[in-house]
Amino acid sequence: MTARRDVRSALKNQDANQLRQARQRVHLVKEALGERGPTWWSDAPDYNRHLVKNTPYHEWYESLDNALHESDLLQFAPDYDAYQSSFHTAFRRQLYAILDQLPLPDHASVLDVPCGNGFYSRRFAERLGMGGRLVAADKSVAYLGQAQRAIAEANSLAVVEVIEADAYRLPFPDATFDLVWCAQSLISLDPAAAVREMYRVVKPDGLVAILEVDEFHHVLLSWPEELEAALPQAMLSASVKRFCDGGKLSPTRRLRRLLQEYGFRSVRRDTYPIERAAPFDPPTLAFLTQHFQFLRSMAYAQLSPFNQCEFDRLTNSSNPNSLFRSPDSELVCINAVYYASPNRV
Question: At a CB cut-off of 8 Å and minimum separation 6, what does 243 contact?
Fold first, then answer.
């Protein structure tokens, strides 16, 4: 600990000589602890200071990571299905409009992964005609059942497949799909592993489209200024506490760089705000109910007592001055879609 404090002191003083000496002391301590230096075993190679993906253990680690991500999601949002369903219902027209402007060639092949309950798959099925192909893939058998029922309602002329598949190991050859679609799923996935697989299965002149949100700014409401400023900080604290990662709830902030790192040469972002003003219709009120439950489960405990009281007052639907019922209430829901192609467009 003393050696690390010396490093911090040297950085603060901008003293290169002091920093070099401090880092040497840290190195010697790590050698004494066995963290660096010659290995104490001789029956296997030394993979210390290697990324797991560059070792023979990468498949085991990725499968473990997948399970951990899914466990994180269940803890993060036990009512995730209800929250997502309310989002889809309230903003169906605007969300389907995003899908409708995606370029689909004749006889297009489309992959929706993870497809979830089939909300987006159904719209793709409606768009695709004779000769088209839609694959809705998810690891959850329960979701696949919902997706199957949703897609059946489209009465599509396209070839439709609903399959159980791992987003990290898709059962398709390289360069299979004209379009790969992924919506609000990176929070429950290892984004790097998922993006790498999307790159593999999309055609060289195809398109990957990823709809994601930043939970720090996803839903803007008419909060009092102090509470509005406190909520993002509370979300950050909750994210660090639950995931040991302050950026877990804002996958959009890392997505451009991630797409470029995995080989996409053309990357652009379009932002789609959806606005509502009081009086809210029933689907918007239902979405607000779910959103407030989400904030309560994530951020409420991190707020000050004063802001907790304000939150309770403004999210009480029986209060005529609540965000549900105030004539001055406004809502802006911000969604981003990243469009990425292996070739420049």
Answer: 72, 76
